[in-house]
Amino acid sequence: MCFSAEASFGAAAVLLPIGGYCVQSALRKDRRYLPLALVPVAFGMQQAAEGCVWLGLHHGDEELVTRASVVFLYFALVFWPFWIPFSLLFTEVRRPAKRLLAATTVLSLVWLLLYAPVAIDPGRWVQSEVVHHSIAYRVDGLPGFQVVPRPLWRLAYLAFICGPLGLAQRGGGGTRLRAIGGSAVAVLFVVCYLVYEYTFTSVWCFFAALLSLILCHLFFKLPFRREFAETRTLPTLLLQEEK
After folding, report:
1. R_g over Cα of the chain
2. What is the rounded CA–CA span in Å between residue 14 and residue 208?
3. Position 232 confidence tier, pLDDT thresholds 50, 70, 90
4. Distance of alpha carbon 29 from alpha carbon 74, whole angstroms
C-alpha cells in the first residue's frame, strides 16, 4: 500500500468539511456533542501536518520535516488519548461512567510527559523517514520508553481510546454506531500493529482518520436536545398565535 502527500492532503480535504458539518450539527442539535464533533477536524489537521512531512522529505527541507513531525506527533501521542475520553465525558449521563471518563481524561495527561522531549528538542528525539511507502517516526529513544517498555505504552494507548468508546456505548445518542466504532478502532489498531509495525504511527492515524467519517452519520441521526428543539420551533409557534 502506498501513501503520499496527495493521500494525506486528500484525506484532510475530506475530513475538514465533514468536521465542519459535524460541528454545525452539534451547535444546532446538542452542544454537549461539540467536542466529539471536532474529532474529524482534528484528524484533518493531523493529516495536513503529515502531508507537510511528505513535502519536506521529498524536497529535502529538514526544517519543514521537523516542524510538521512535531505537530503530527502531538496529535498522535498526546491529543487522541486525551480528547476521546474528554469528548465523551460531555455526552455521558450515568454518574459512575462519567466519573470514570473524568478520571481517564486526567490520567491521559501522562502522555504529555512522553511527548515533552519531542516538543522541546525534536532534532534530538525525532527522525522521520520513508519506509516502504509510509513514514516512520523514529522516537524509540524517548525517555518515557526507557522507563516503561514501548509495547506497554501502546496497550495503554489502545485502552485510553477504546475503553471510553466502549464505556460510553449506553449513554447519549448513536449507541450502536459508537459500539461499532469502538470495535473497529480496536481491530484497526491490532491490524496496523501486526502488518505495519515499522510505520505503525503513520498508518494507524491515517486509517483512524478515515474511520472518523462514521461520525458524519452519527450527527445526521442525532436528535435535537429538548431545549434546542423548543427554540427551533418557537418562531413557528409565534406565527401560529398571530394567525
Report:
1. 20
2. 14
3. very low
4. 31
Cell of 101: 471518563
Question: How does DSSP classify residue 137?
Answer: E
Residue where the block lists cell 450539527: 25
In the Cβ-directed half-sphere of 185, how many Cα atoms lie within 13 Å? 25
Query: What pLDDT, on the 0 to 100 scale, is given for residue 193?
Result: 65
3-state secondary structure of 139: coil
CB 97 within 8 A of CB 171: yes
* Closest listed residue to residue 16, CA positions, set 42, 49, 36, 34: 42
CA angle, residues 64, 69, 71, in degrees to nearest 5: 100
**Angle of CA points 116, 120, 126, to nearest 5°:** 80
Residue showing cell 449506553: 170
How confident is the model at residue 243, as a pLDDT?
44
pLDDT, tens only, 100-139? 999 999 999 999 999 999 999 999 999 999 888 889 899 9
**What is the structure's pLDDT at 17?**
94
Residue 217 has what pLDDT? 82
The CA-CA-CA angle for residues 54, 40, 207, to 5°, reads 55
**Dmax over Cα atoms in the chain, in whole Å?**
74
CA distance 74 to 132: 23
Calculate helix-pair angle for 39-59, 80-89, nearest 10 degrees: 170
